[in-house]
Amino acid sequence: MEDKKTSRIREFLQKHRYDLVLILLLVFVSLAALLILSLTRTEGARVEVTKDGEHYATYSLSDEGEYPIGDGNILVIEDGWAYMRSADCPDRTCVNRGKIRYTNQTIVCLPNRVAVKVISGEGGVDLES
Predict the structure, then answer these.
(1) Where are the domains of the chain?
(2) pLDDT tens-digit profile of 64-110?
(3) 3-state DSSP call for residue 56?
(4) Which residues have C-beta within 8 Å of that of residue 79, sequence separation ≥ 6?
(5) 44: how many CB neighbours lie within 10 A of its CB?
(6) What is the domain class of 46-119 according to CATH?
(7) For 4-47, how does the pLDDT look when each residue is reduced to its tens digit (9 = 90+)?
(8) Which of 7, 65, 112, 129 is most buried, by CB atoms within 10 Å?
(9) Which residues of 58-97 are buried (b: 16+ CB within 10 A; e: fewer)?
(10) Closest by alpha carbon to 78, among 97, 58, 101?
(11) CB 120 within 8 A of CB 45
């Protein structure tokens, strides 16, 4: 009985060996990419807010507070993280996005045409409007 099971396993492995190699290769490449991305990400220093496709404001991630964006969105910065506390849009995807702090992370509210992007602190002056 054990020989039958062993032969079935061998037959399966022989038949699907390239599939298994491909799956293992994809898992390895995915894990390597995830490791590289997590080791190379950098914390941002500011968030840049655009509304209706134009620059609206830039806030430092070290300046805690609530910042209204237009009439419908409220951006909160606390403990070096930025997130959208509330929005008057129907889907509230921007509120559910969660907190951001690493360079090039974004929060987007399409109905209100608002985008918040984390930028690095290299060069420039922090501006608030």
Answers:
(1) 2-40, 46-119
(2) 999 999 888 999 999 999 999 999 989 999 999 999 999 999 999 99
(3) strand
(4) 64
(5) 22
(6) mainly beta
(7) 888 898 899 899 999 999 999 999 999 999 999 889 888 899 99
(8) 112
(9) bbbbeeeeebebeebbbbebeeeebbbeebebeeeebbeb
(10) 101
(11) yes
